[in-house]
Design brief:
Elements lengths: L22 H16 L4 H6 L6 H12 L2 H11 L6 H14 L9 H14 L6 H21 L4 H5 L3 H10 L4 H8 L6 E4 L6 H10 L4 E4 L3 E4 L16 E3 L7 H6 L10 E5 L6 H9 L5 E7 L2 H14 L4 E4 L9 H5 L4 E7 L14 H4 L2 H18 L3 E11 L8 H10 L3 E10 L21 E8 L2
Parallel strand pairs: 5-6, 5-8, 6-7, 8-9
Antiparallel strand pairs: 1-3, 1-4, 2-3, 9-11, 10-11
Helix pairs in contact: 1-3, 1-5, 1-6, 3-5, 4-5, 4-7, 5-6, 5-7, 6-7, 9-10
The protein binds S-adenosylmethionine (SAM).
The site of S-adenosylmethionine has 18 residues, from helix 13 and strand 6.
């Protein structure tokens, strides 16, 4: 067994953890995690099984593997004539994904190969360690030729499933390459400053005093130059700021901008799919204290608890209900006295195809049939919640998806079958990564943001 290897050459890969365990142990854990993901588990679930001391390094390496998995699998197909056992395949893919491009590799490729062989000898693939060694040595010898032989395979080039690439080409003929490139990049850490406690400018100064540089994005957001643990943020526990992508920060201002508080009562707002409560909190931070009351629905009781935690840290209050938004008979009369809402935020469950850069496993977990299935759920939620809106009231429909079936096409179909709905200006499909100015969303550019879709609908009187 070799001892601990030298420090990673690419610290951005995150493996430079003080007293880091041997690299082969990390590669072994990454391969096991990848095996779990290819078996249908989420990266969150597989990482939860990794021992705490290995987790930060393993997560960074796993995310890099997931961003290079199409290339690794194409290389593997050239190196082996018959598909190896899934555990062997996962270890080979791990090594190839990390080592195929020397410029991005977190360690020198020969170190990665040595340590992957060490992982094979010490782990579940012991019987095949000679085979793994032979494959990876050949890869080192013939790397350039093997890599260029995969350059015509779009899955290898873009590291997304073929159906996903084809759908993006159809949905976004101008932007599909920019979307795929953004999906493979590291996202920035972006904060939303709690307007009830501070301002973006004051919080920026507080960050600066701690040597943390940030630029203003969206209405009250700050994009950090480097990511830090939240515990290091000034007054985080006292609720001065939250972590939230700039695109997600567009929801609350879009919904509330054109509405005023009715005479003698607060504005009644429904956040229909609310956990973990990021947008619920933003609605409450954005409005003048006491001017709105928010009912936050969440179908999953565990996730609903996270709304309570979010609001309690930020010093905010909403009526949080564990309920199915698509079954108002269970809650609208009993919990809301059947009083229609002035505003509804429908941040609907979706494929999450816009936040792939933050969740690089999503592209490998989704099936193409999921898009139509989720679009069906979204359309039912739209139809069920629309009657609960006052005439003159407004609804924001949004998803963190770039697929048109969950965005533009969904809303066009809703408008075509619903004569009481009018569409007002909104951002539409936001392309991930692009620094763009969206006048209908905010005065500041959104900076480097996730992919999202926004529609604003008004109910005709
Ligand atoms: C996109 S997430 C919401 C994110 C949230 N708005 C935020 O900004 O923090 C969608 C949420 O809707 C919940 N959900 C899915 N179907 C639902 C339903 N029928 N009724 C209520 N909540 C639902 C999911 O459990 C998930 O927590």
């Amino acid at each position: 067994m070799t001892s601990k290897p030298s420090q990673p050459k690419n610290a951005a890969a995150g493996a430079a953890v003080p007293n880091a365990p041997a690299l082969w142990q990390q590669l072994d854990a990454v391969a096991k995690a990848l095996h779990g993901i290819l078996g249908g588990q989420s990266s969150k679930a597989v990482l939860a099984q990794v021992p705490q001391r290995l987790r930060p390094g393993v997560q960074a390496l796993l995310f890099q593997v997931l961003r290079n998995l199409g290339r690794a699998q194409a290389l593997q197909r050239q190196l082996v004539s018959r598909a190896p056992a899934p555990k062997v395949s996962a270890l080979l893919s791990t090594a190839l994904a990390l080592a195929w491009d020397e410029a991005q590799a977190p360690y020198p490729p020969f170190t990665l190969v040595n340590q992957a062989v060490e992982a094979a000898k010490n782990g579940a693939a012991r019987a095949q360690s000679g085979f793994i060694n032979a494959c990876l040595r050949r890869f080192l010898r013939e790397r350039d030729a093997l890599v260029s032989a995969t350059d015509n395979d779009p899955v290898a080039v873009w590291n997304h499933p073929a159906w996903w690439i084809a759908r993006l080409k159809k949905d976004h003929p101008q932007d599909w390459q920019a979307i795929l490139a953004a999906n493979n990049a590291q996202p920035p850490m972006t904060l939303r400053v709690n307007a009830q406690k501070s301002t973006a400018a004051r919080y920026q100064d507080a960050l600066q005093a701690m040597n943390l540089k940030a630029t203003a994005v969206a209405e009250c957001g700050l994009q950090l130059e480097r990511a830090v643990p939240v515990q290091e943020l000034p007054h985080f526990e006292e609720g001065w700021a939250s972590v939230q992508d700039a695109a997600a920060q567009a929801a609350a201002p879009l919904l509330l901008a054109g509405l005023s508080q009715p005479q003698g009562r607060p504005l009644r707002v429904l956040d229909a799919c609310a956990a973990p409560g990021g947008k619920t909190a933003h609605l409450l931070e954005h409005a003048a204290p006491g001017s709105i009351e928010v009912t936050a629905l969440e179908i999953d009781p565990e996730r609903a608890r996270r709304i309570d935690e979010t609001l309690s840290r930020l010093g905010l209050k909403a009526k949080v209900l564990v309920a199915d938004a698509s079954a108002p008979k269970d809650w609208f009369e009993s919990q809301c006295a059947a009083q229609p809402f002035d505003a509804i935020l429908l941040d609907a469950p979706c494929t999450a195809s816009g936040i792939v850069r933050r969740q690089p496993d999503v592209r490998w977990l989704r099936r193409e049939s999921d898009v139509a299935q989720l679009a069906g759920i979204q359309s039912r939620l739209l139809d069920t919640l629309w009657p609960l809106l006052q005439p003159g009231g407004r609804m924001v429909y949004c998803t963190c998806s770039v697929f048109k079936a969950e965005g533009d096409a969904q809303i066009q179909a809703f408008l075509a079958r619903n004569t009481t709905a009018a569409s007002l200006p909104a951002a539409g499909h936001l392309i991930p990564g692009k620094a763009a100015k969206h006048d209908s969303v905010s005065d500041n550019p959104l900076g480097d943001h996730d992919g999202f879709f926004y529609a604003l609908l008004e109910k005709l009187r």
